[in-house]
Design brief:
The complex is a heterodimer. Chain A contains 13 helices and no strands. Chain A is mainly α. Chain A has two domains: 48 residues, no CATH class; 222 residues, MetI-like fold, CATH 1.10.3720.10. The longest helix of chain A has 32 residues. Chain B has a single domain, classed as MetI-like fold (Orthogonal Bundle), CATH 1.10.3720. Chain B is 71% helix and 0% strand. Chain B is globular, with a radius of gyration of 24 Å. Classes of the chains: A mainly alpha, B mainly alpha. At the A-B interface, helix 1, helix 3, helix 4, helix 5 and helix 6 of A face helix 1, helix 4, helix 5, helix 7 and helix 10 of B.
Chain lengths: 271, 292
Amino acid sequence: MRDRAKWLRLSPVALGIVYLIPFYILITTSLKKESDLSSKWALPGYLDLDNFVQAWSNARLDSAFVNTLVVTGCALALLVLLGSLSAYPLARYPSRWNKLMYVCFVSALIVPPLAILVPLYKFYVDLGGINTYWGIVLLQTTFYLPMAIFLYTGFIKSIPKDLDEAAMIDGAGKIGLFLRILLPLLKPVTASVMILCGVQIWNDYQFSVFFLQKADMQTFTVALSVFIGQFNSNIGWVAAGSFIAAVPLAALYLFLQRYFINGLASGAVKG
Amino acid sequence: MNTWKHSPVWLNLLYLPTVLLFGLFIVYPLSKGVQISFTNWDGFSQQFRSVGWDNYKRMFSDRNTIKVIQNTFIYGLGSALLQNLLGFVFALLLNRKFRTVGLVRTIVYLPAIISPLIIGYLWYFILEYRSGALNDIVRLFSDEPMNFLANPDFNVWLITFVNTYQFAGVAMIIFLAGLQVIPKDYYEAADIDGASPLQQLRHVTWPLLAPSLTISLVLNLIGGFKLFDVIISLTDGGPGYASASLSSYMYKLYFGRQDAGYASAIGVLMFAIIAIVSVVALYFLRRREERL
């Protein structure tokens, strides 16, 4: 019995250590000079941040940061607006037609964006949407709307209808009801939508690599992959670039981890 | 309360923008893609002609395509199974309230927050041939370092493993959420009936986690079949097409070989595979939930 208790206490620690190994290797690699051929498992005996300086300037991570922020911010604003507005009639008036619409919206979740890359790219060339903010923002919004509608509809359904009826008796119209009664109650699910979709849009590579090719329009992932394509022989630079690109979200997650984990958990339980 | 059933039609205008976006960026390209798949279009010129079913026939004689379809199934089914198995074990292990346990949960979910492209690079530093961290260990036992990522026999499995490492934390959180809504009384009742911990796991925990398993498996299946970023950063689909997925293959065909007609056909195939797999999985998992 004693052994079992010890095993139960130690195995999580072992799991945590195994999970940190890639991050440890990232740190040692990013701190070593190119001439340092010692094993990646060993820490360098000196402090040299030149790799970070080089990665920051050569990968143009400053403009990538701004682009990623703009794209993610705009797409999230649209997702919250369109997601909650679409979910309101779907959740509150489940007529046969609206049920069908709901199924159509949510099943768009399975459309793999890359499966329609060829026609989508051609369409974007015709529209002039390549290398523009609006182009990528509309794409991201469209492909994460199924998730947003799914979460909002589930959440609105869980709000008792008595609340609506009370407001109607007090003379609120259907839109007023949504704006004044329901919208303030949607804060928790809005946080879930922003976190679940925000992380994926911020990290997106499969759209951005095709639709944001121009150097000053690239987001983090695209800038990083271009940089790595150019300097893949200098692994210290590559590691430092990866480190910098991972830091913003990782830091946000460590500060707000409760929201990140609850966002996923509540979304999964409601589903 | 019949008034609730009748939605005023004007209220449905609220989802009109969504309908427009879906029509423009999903339905229209999807139908256009089917059209292009019956041509020999090169991706930019005005001239192309219809080739009938040739692009589809070509899939079954093209050895690369067959290999890529196999890979995609390994990525999809393999990572869905592994992620859920590990996620389930991690959840059981970490379903306690110690401070270290909370910290470990945070760590296991951390890779899921980071871009798959970057996670791919992290593992590249470990698996790489010249100075990879794993080869430092290999060198202790043999003279020859191993070129893990260039080995066409198992680099597909290495990519599946890296994808599992990254997203097992998602399955873990979903299972933990499921575990927390199981009422404690059930375990007390099972204790009184003299059920062993293993029996409790089998007859109480596992069946009550059915809804968690459904959502986690379907999410992971879709994610695995679409796999792209981590392949690009680890092997770029190579050597040759040995580790390519349908996504990375069609990107090569379109931008690398100007074979837009064939790339479109591959896209249609990919859409069909994901649609069929997720509908079938959802159907069986929902039925299983009802039986339990």
